[in-house]
Specification:
CATH architecture: 3-Layer(aba) Sandwich
Distance between the termini: 11 Å
Number of helices: 4
Strand content: 25-35%
Number of strands: 7
Length: 118
Amino acid sequence: MAKQIFIIEDDEQLTDAMCEVLIGAGYDVKICDNFADVSSCLPVSGVDLILLDIYLNEYDGREIIKMLKDNPTYSNIPVVFVTVLNHQDLHEYKPAAVLTKSFGLHDLVDTVHQVIGR
């Protein structure tokens, strides 16, 4: 069974590109487009990794990560930040990794492999 990756990103072109390359690498990919209530998008089990944009339209990804870490259902799922922010600004949130925009899609796959395997 393919490992499941959940993408929380507001840039449709980037989301489409990430989906395409991750599906091509053998992952099952789901997208969340309800930033106001991310937990309504996430299944209660089976998520192996979350790719989270920090600057979402009208929402702050740092608030989403706090919600995820405070919820026992999601607290152990590794989160990779996708951001333009300086990595030092994100250290307190303990991401599994940080991808700085504009990263290469091969960097995305390499990072995912490092965090959750193939």
